[in-house]
Amino acid sequence: MRIGVLCSGGDSPGMNAAIRGAVLRGVEVHGFEMLGFMDGWRGFHEGDAVPLDRSAVRGISPLGGVILGTSRVPPFPGGRAEPEALDRLRSRVAEYGLDGFLLIGGNGTQTVAKILADAGIPAIGLPKTIDNDLGGTDYTFGFDTAVSIAAEAIDRLRTTGESHRRCMVLEVMGRNAGWIALHAGMAGGAQAMLIPEHPESIEQIAEWVLSVRDRGRSSLVVVAEGFTLEGSDGEVTRGGDDGFGRPRLGGIAEVLAPLIEERTGIETRATVLGHVQRGGSPTAFDRVLATRTGLAAADAAHEGRWGTMAGLHGDRIEMVPLAEAVGRLKTVPPERYEEVRLNFG
Q1: Residue 108 labeled ligand binder
Q2: Model confidence pLDDT, tens digit, residues 243-299
């Protein structure tokens, strides 16, 4: 069996470990021949591929980034899975002699995996995203690393904030889901976590900051990039579009900081963590999760369980239908937010 391995979308810590797990199980146990496409669908379209065997994946689990590269190049011209586009893709698959794909990515990539599987092009999904917003799995690899990086930033910002009696506002990633802000804020003991799912007013935020000041402390506010203030026109953008044609988010912390200072009289500074959250070595949790995901995906390919994704349920990796993964984004439930909101300020 000849399997193509492809990464798509933004990078996420643990992708190398997932590749390693899939290759070691696929090649060494099941006797697969595996081919890695460079920079996602770009490599597939342009014939830029490398063989994947034990030597190719030696020592890559602790490495950040991804050895194959990744991109947001679409699998279909114009991004639309028209019948003619699917036929061209089938022809290309036949030219490579592929029996199926292992697709490593987030919601967009798993949506493509489902399209391919529904069209009779065998595909299995490996879920990665630092945002943890993919259905069908409790956690995606990359999320734990992003939270750990953000929590360390909170620890560092807290010391300088306390030294100067400042309010510190830390912006983390999270376009539609506030999982990073929620978990990092809880881990770092932030006084407020602002997430896309639940708008808050500037008056309420100022009230929380003042209550912290009244206790003799300095506030630390964590805000997801997709958070919106009550009554605002929408998310804060930096201009231009991202690789999916969506407005590029960023800068909500820089909007909030002067508003907080104006209403409280407390000097307030903003920090945007940005792509630091994606970089560096993955945590041990993400390395293990990604490796187990790769092993399970290779086993599923051997068993012919196409059209599925390797999701974490409790402490077990289970193959779930791709439809469960891409039906809707997994956002922070109201009850999860409310349980921590009661202790803001």
Answers
A1: yes
A2: 556 676 778 999 999 999 999 999 999 999 988 998 999 999 999 999 999 999 999
* Mean pLDDT of the region 41-53: 97
Q: Which of 11, 39, 131, 286 is catalytic?
A: 131
Model pLDDT, residue 327: 79
Residue ranges of domains in the chain, CATH in brackets: 2-141+282-326 (3.40.50.450), 143-278 (3.40.50.460)
Alpha helices in the chain (DSSP H): 15-23, 41-46, 83-96, 107-118, 143-164, 179-188, 202-214, 252-264, 284-303, 322-326, 334-341
Q: Report whether 174 belongs to an annotated binding site.
A: yes
Whether pLDDT at 155 is above 70: yes
Which H or E element spans position 221? Answer: strand 220-224
Q: Would residue 118 show up in a list of annotated catalytic residues for this protein?
A: no
Q: What is the pLDDT of residue 236?
A: 73
Q: ∠ CA 263-267-273 to the nearest 5 degrees?
A: 105
Whole-model pTM? Answer: 0.93
Give the integer Cα–Cα distance in Å for 38 and 42: 7
190 within 8 A of 154, measured Cβ to Cβ: yes
CB atoms within 10 A of CB 216: 7
Amino acid of residue 30: H
Q: How many CA atoms lie within 13 A of 239 on its CB side?
A: 0
